[in-house]
Structures are given as C-alpha cells and as structure tokens.
Amino acid sequence: MHPGSRPTIRLATLATAALLAVACAQTPKPVTVTDTITASAVVESIDHAARTATLRTADGRALAVRAGPDVRNFDQVKAGDRLRVSFTDALAAEVIKPGSGVTSVTPSVSRAAAGAMPSGSLALATQGVVKVQSVDAANNRVTVTGADGVPVTLNVRDAQAQQFIRGLKAGDEVQLTYTESVAVSVEPVR
Questions:
Q1: Do 73 and 120 form a contact (C-beta atoms < 8 A)?
Q2: What tens digit of pLDDT does each residue of 80-129 get?
C-alpha cells in the first residue's frame, strides 16, 4: 500500500459513513395520529323485558335505544346509570423497504364478562402500502398512490404528520395502518 493512500482511504471511509448517517437521519420516524371523541348520556328509563332504554344526552336530547341479544348483562342497567361512548380513529405511518408491506383488514370485538356491567368495543384495523409520488413540504401536502395506482393528494394538518412527510421522498413506500374503534360502557349510579 502506498504511504499516501492511507489518508485517502480514511477520508473516503469517513465520507461514506457521513453520507450513510445523513441518509439514515433523513428517513422519518414512524408516526401515529389519533383522534378520540367521547360522549355520555344518562339512562332515563329502562324496559328490561323489551331490552330498550331512553337516554338523556348532555345537551338534553332524549334517545331511544334497543339492546341486541349480544349485549350481555343488560338486566343490571338501572335508571341513573351513565353510558359512555368513545369513538377513536388512528393512522400510523412508517417508511418501509420496498415490497415488504402488508395489506390486511383485522376486526376485533370484546364484550363484558358475565356478571359485569355492560361494556364492549369494536375495532377495525386496515393496513395497506402507498408509494410516495411527491411531497410539497411548504404546503404540507403529499401525493401517494395505492394498490389501485390512482394518485391521491393529501393535505396534512397534524404537526407530527407534517414532520413525517418532510422526511419523505418520491419512491418511498409507506406502510399505513388505519384503525377505527368504538367503545361503550355503562357506569352504575353512585
């Protein structure tokens, strides 16, 4: 090895390491954006035989509801109990290696154990992969195509998601997981 080549090799190695560090730093960290809306109502009256109840919302509206046969422990609900409902949607995004994405739809259901107050939840998680066509970071927009090949431009409003798209580049593949869920519970009057 020529004595003068050693610094050149070291310099080339350092330059390569620096480029790799910059390339790795540019891949955005996975992001999840979640939104939850919660509502509650008070059980105003109940008919256990007919499996119906009248609920009064916080703004004073009356709602008539019927509990299906899958609602466990309905006989424990009494006038004055509080019904709480939470709707949540979440979107998770992560840059992945091309071709490594997953496409799936996964439902999940839970309900109260026998003897407990009525409660339950239902969720649906949908996974898919999109390919980034372009990023307009100045206007917080990203254009992607899904499996159907149709380009869609998204206006990104969440600050974390805006940071995420700033690290994207055309050609990146992004694994998306969109989850919608609803949870219902009855709390006894105290």
A1: no
A2: 999 999 999 999 999 999 999 999 999 999 999 998 999 999 999 999 99
Whether residue 173 contacts residue 188, with contact meaning beta carbons closer than 8 Å, is answered with no
DSSP string, 87-143: EEEEEEEEEE-TT----EEEEEEEEPPTTSPPEEEEEEEEEEEEEEEEEEGGGTEEE
SS3 84: strand
3-state helix, strand, coil in the chain (%, to 5): 20, 50, 30
Q: What is the pTM assigned to this prediction?
A: 0.75
DSSP β-bridge partners for residue 129: 175
Distance (Å, whole) CA 20 – CA 131: 23
